[in-house]
Write a structure and sequence with these properties.
The protein has 176 residues and is an alpha+beta fold. It has one domain: 2-Layer Sandwich (Alpha-D-Glucose-1,6-Bisphosphate, Chain A, domain 4). It contains six helices and seven strands; from the N terminus they run αβαααββββββαα. A hairpin with an 8-residue loop joins strand 2 and strand 3. Helix 2 packs across helix 6. It is elongated.
């Protein structure tokens, strides 16, 4: 009986060491990047991708909850433009996104606040490509805690899949 208890204690200690120690071997930041080729000039693509007010037209999260409410603040475009969303669906949640860098037809950087899910930075870059535009969207978020680092292993798959849907929607919209 005593040997069984010792074995259980050693097993719990080993699992704890692997869980915590392993977490600190994992990246402290999650990064996701996806690109798409769009058969439209950069100025047409940027008019859609560079304006937070147009996000509801192509966002994949709207399909998850069509009742999502959006509000906008700040300038019509550029640094300081803010989009807020609210949804009762936990997969969409509530949060805000603020433009922090804006280079017309080239680059848009935003900071998003996902409430209890933390903060993230998102960058959209555009470059001429053949007869159209190559749009690249990236996401980065700090993973400060042990559980965050383990959860970070799934971010590329989940956020990446949503980025791919959104980029397909944006492509279809820009190519109309």
């Amino acid at each position: 009986m005593n040997t069984v208890i010792k074995s259980i204690v050693y097993l719990i200690v080993a699992i704890t060491v692997v869980f915590y120690g392993g977490a600190y071997l994992l990246p402290s930041e999650a990064r996701v990047e996806r690109s798409v080729e769009i058969a439209a000039p950069p100025e047409k693509v940027f008019a859609i991708a560079g304006d937070l007010r147009r996000v509801p037209e192509w966002s994949p999260w709207l399909a998850t909850d069509p009742a999502t409410r959006f509000t906008f603040e700040g300038p019509e475009q550029g640094v300081g433009q803010v989009m807020r969303w609210a949804s009762n669906n936990p997969l969409v949640g509530s949060g805000s996104e603020r433009v922090t860098e804006f280079v017309v037809n080239e680059r848009l950087v935003t900071e998003a606040d996902y409430g209890e899910f933390g903060r993230a930075a998102s960058t959209v870059t555009l470059a001429p490509s053949g007869q159209g535009t190559r749009l690249t969207r990236s996401f980065s978020s700090a993973l400060p805690g042990v559980v965050d680092r383990w959860a970070g292993l799934m971010i590329d798959g989940s956020v990446g899949a949503e980025y791919e849907k959104g980029l397909a929607n944006l492509k279809a919209l820009a190519e109309k």
